[in-house]
Design brief:
Largest sheet: 5 strands, parallel
Order of helices and strands: HHEHEHEHEHEHHHHEHEEHHEEHEEH
CATH superfamily of the largest domain: Glucose-6-phosphate isomerase like protein, domain 1
Strand order of the largest sheet: 2-1-3-4-5
Number of strands: 12
Radius of gyration: 30 Å
Length: about 325
Amino acid sequence: MTTSETFLATARRVIGIEVDGLRALSAALDGSFAAAIDLILQAKGRVIVSGMGKSGHVGRKIAATFASTGTPAQFVHPAEASHGDLGMVTEGDVALVLSNSGETPELADIVAHTRRFSIPLIGVASRPGSTLLTQADVAILLPNAPEACGTGIVPTTSTTMTLALGDAMAVALMEHRRFTPDHFRTFHPGGKLGAKLIKVADLMHAGAAVPLVTESQPMGDVLLEMTRKGFGVAGVTDAAGRLVGIVTDGDLRRHMEGLLSHTAAEVMTRGPRTVAPGAVAEKAVAIMKDRSITCLFVVDPDGEGRAAGILNIHDCLRAGIV
């Protein structure tokens, strides 16, 4: 076996062992998981996540996932808690404490603090009868699964199971609270995820910036409106103010001969493609790319067909939507 094949075999063995651990975790989940979710939902404060070593690293991720999906959470390092940070853990909070052994000495102070002030405690560990699980209001026992290192000393399968457990809790809470993409965007305004969830209404030009003319206006007026607004297009409205057409550069070229003798209705393209203000901007970009256009009029479905704004492809690009 070559060195490359050896590396691949090791990777597949490790992943296989961890997959088995996740299957065991799924099968082992019982009423304690549901009780933990209920405890978090009843809390008026935050979920205080704590753990030492590798459990602490996993705990930071779980706290971050909770916080970004509608469950206020904060990670408190157990050693720092013993030197003043216990003040961050208050009545109304619920503590989620992680420890593979359930006997991590650095957790003693934060566990005692929850008992002293009647702060609900969810304990996660792999040893039944451990101090953490016996002290906890809700005890979640991780299944006895072998670590993937082969020696049993490197946290691998155990941390993967704990991480997956945290994800399962976060998703269960999300679904119960009906957490939507709109809520998610509120907590993720930056980065690619934020860009993907930006609404058309957040980027569109509205009010006096929208190039609009009526069907009866002469093309001279239409050209002036297109020039003033700078989008290279003009929307055409009927007597009731509904958007019924659009005049583009292509329409101008097709009617070049005697252009100024025509009205907007005679030159426009009827039934233009539009987008709703509540749609994600990515959908608008897809429409513009599919039609090879650079602007899209925004029409509110509840606005009786009136143009609410106009969206330019460059506004989307500047917002990171490509």
